[in-house]
Design brief:
single chain; 416 residues; 5-stranded mixed sheet; 4-stranded mixed sheet; elongated
Amino acid sequence: MLVKTLLNRTENVKPFIFGADRFEVVEGHDALVVEVASRKNSRPICPVCGIKCTVYDTQRPRLFEYVPFWSFKTFFRYAPRRADCPIHGPLVERVPWAVGKEHQTTSCKVFLARWARRLSWKETAGIFKTSWDSVFRAVKYVVEYGLAHRNLDGIRQIGIDEISYGGHKYLTLVYQLDNGLRRLLWSGPKRRVKTLLRFFRWFGKERSALLEYVSSDMWAPYLKVIRKKAVNALNILDRFHIMKKFNEAIDEIRRQEAKELLQHSKEHILVHSRWALLKNKPNLTEKQVVKLKELLRQKLRSVTGYLLREDFQRFWRYRSIAWAEKFLGDWTKRTMYSKLEPMKKVARMLRNHKELMLNWFRADGKISNGAVEGLNLKAKLTMRKAYGFRNVKTLQIALYHTLGNLPEPKTVHRFC
């Protein structure tokens, strides 16, 4: 079977034809080069308005990178014509296998982008004998296509959070959390009121009015914008962030107490106790279980903080809003009588956000409590896979590519 027979089955290049193919050395590698020619009497198409024009002139032959054949890089060689458009003047003609001045074919971009979702960008570049920049351009093209063609109808649940990168730099992320479609909707640099306002301006008043549930943390600027822009939505505080505040308080108590004990003895019970106190019981290792049992036999402030956190877990198991509200009031009152300032700070925080806490029960389990954190973990993994990103735009492209569930350009064959 001839190479051009395979290409005719997989690539629609009308009104062009595939010609001879030969092996040549391209960019230091043996490569398969396939000649492409325009049909006799065909006219070039203006890339702007799409009308057929007369030929102004013909440029030098160019190489367009295609999907590798076996282990060989593959290129199309074509001498593009310039269309003499009566409206836009002489412009290089539109070709069906590539866009604009790119030297990668659309099929090659989709091929690299799909592999870059599974592997790191550096690994993808190494395996297919190309550069990191080529992989980036391929991913960028697929992401831009997907963002322009995705469907934003029927969005009823969103989650708002942020991730840090490069030290104290933040990226605000907005996810769609509807059952059956969880994806990254929008991302914006920094963690400010203006950042979230930009999302709602992009999302539009009509879509914002249709939102039913918004999951967020307790950061005051976020809550203020949500109240103003998502007026019909129920704002639910993310359970993960609430319990994270408990763990931060327990860890602060443990560190203070460990310093005090260290002044009296080089060895003390709180050595290697951090994760025994912070992790959920089902996630403890055997050593951590033994350590926790030792700690619970001691009269320590750290243990008191731990027991207060474990007692609060009962809040999530209530079904009645009235009983949950009563429990929350009793728990905060009991905690305020303790001498643990970090836990008292948590109690004040919960008391100040009581109505938002109770929205958890008003939602009646219709929004997943772990969805946002699960997507955030994938976002952090994506950041590691795309290591080498040079600016926030590249990071956003990597996140949309992995988490955006974006439509891709249509190709005849799938690669992975």
